[in-house]
Design a protein that fits this description.
Structural class: mainly beta
Number of strands: 25
Order of helices and strands: HEEEEEEEEEEEEEEEEEEEEEEEEE
Shape: globular
Radius of gyration: 23 Å
Largest sheet: 5 strands, antiparallel
CATH topology: Neuraminidase
Strand content: 35-45%
Number of domains: 1
CATH class: Mainly Beta
Length: about 375
């Protein structure tokens, strides 16, 4: 009898200890950050994107994967969409910021009129640097700063010295717009870029039902397969539309509104921000599919999102998306389809809501513990870190 009572009491004590440990563990887990944003508290201005010719309005951010030519590994490239007159679709320059020395120099300056690029040059968020050193950047050009004079544009290939070596254009390429998602194997690469210019009228063509410029659903995401011969520029081999029916329209303040953020998950799913519909969608089998997935499967919509723009992937597989209508960046768990956190990274009170229209490009820092972003109101490259 005594032995049974002792056994029962010991068992009860063990159960109670396990319950307490479980409760304590739950408390610890609850206190742990749900993602990257909750660990980021420091925001530092690194440099201005404004060049000697007066170009401004920074859009794309690319972190260099290699040292070659004028570029060292981990340098940051930033391009400009506007010229000195602040006309959109007229920026022609890319600056290079070197974190190790805090040096900022001009990496590339393209001619405004480029015969190989329909409509000329207006550099967009569609920019990447390959492991072979070639830089590829999109152009959505205009002559008056609006889509009334918009050309179809192109994708421009630059050498590691910042010199143009090729331009890709054609019927599937029209205003390459969103930040690129890239699979780079050295001798071959797969690029994903959104095309937001198809059939866009002037921003003064108003839909009487809404009072805003006419909204279309003709934007696409194009997959480009590229061969990279040793010592020679990349060669465009094939093109496949992997998503279409995405929302876009002309806009006086923002040139155009269209799908901007592209990020490739580890499971071969491509995530796309469709800002006008305030949604992030998913395109499965992105690198292998042979037909379009339409606008894709909805991952998350509304709530903390407010016209999501450029997007990147954290080491944990979460998405960070910049809002266009306020100064927040939003973290999303794409597998769970949940928005888990938002942080104000631009609280400029001159806009309503604060930071409205100030954010655009975003890229992870090499250590994966923070991110770079641009503030269009101050024409600066910023760094967020712990």
């Amino acid at each position: 009898m005594f032995k049974s009572e002792f056994t029962i009491k010991a068992t009860l004590r063990r159960v109670a200890a396990c319950v307490a440990l479980t409760f304590l563990s739950g408390t610890v887990l609850a206190d742990e950050p749900r993602g990257l944003l909750e660990t980021v508290h420091r925001h530092v201005t690194l440099t201005s994107s404004v060049t000697d010719n007066g170009d401004l309005n920074p859009y794309a951010i690319v972190v260099a994967p290699v040292t070659i030519g004028k570029i060292q590994k981990d340098d940051v490239l930033v391009d400009n969409f506007n010229n000195i007159s602040n006309l959109q679709g007229t920026g022609t320059t890319i600056v290079r910021y070197r974190p190790s020395t805090r040096e900022t120099v001009l990496f590339a300056k393209l001619p405004q009129n480029l015969a190989e690029c329909p409509g000329g040059v207006g550099l967009t968020t569609a920019m990447t640097m390959l492991r072979s050193g070639w830089v590829i950047v999109g152009s959505a050009p205009s002559t008056d700063g609006t889509t009334a004079t918009k050309g179809d544009g192109c994708l421009i290939v630059l050498s590691p010295e910042g010199k143009m070596v090729a331009a890709w254009s054609g019927p599937t390429i029209n205003s390459p717009w969103g930040n690129m998602a890239v699979v780079d194997n050295g001798s071959k690469a797969t690029l994903f870029v959104s095309m937001a210019g198809f059939d866009l009228p002037s921003p003064r063509v108003i839909d009487p039902a809404t009072g805003f410029p006419v909204r279309l659903h003709k934007a696409t995401v194009l997959r480009l397969e590229v061969d990279i011969p040793e010592g020679k520029p990349p060669v465009l081999i094939s093109q496949t539309v992997v998503a279409d029916g995405l929302a876009h329209r002309a806009d006086l303040d923002n040139f155009l509104l269209g799908p901007t953020g592209l990020a490739l998950g580890p499971d071969n799913t491509l995530y796309v921000t469709d800002g006008l519909d305030n949604v992030i969608t998913a395109v499965s089998d992105a690198t292998t599919r042979t037909a379009s997935a339409g606008p894709g499967r909805v991952v998350t919509q509304g709530d903390l999102l407010s016209w999501p723009l450029a997007m990147t992937v954290t080491p944990a597989g979460h998405l960070l998306a910049c809002n266009g209508k306020d100064g927040r960046v939003v973290e999303i768990d794409p597998i769970a389809g949940k928005q888990i956190y938002a942080q104000w990274i631009d609280s400029d009170q001159a806009q309503s809501p604060p930071g409205n229209g100030d954010l655009f490009g975003i890229a992870m820092t090499p250590d994966g513990k923070g991110f770079y972003y641009v503030q269009d109101d101050t024409n600066t490259l910023m760094q967020a870190s712990k």
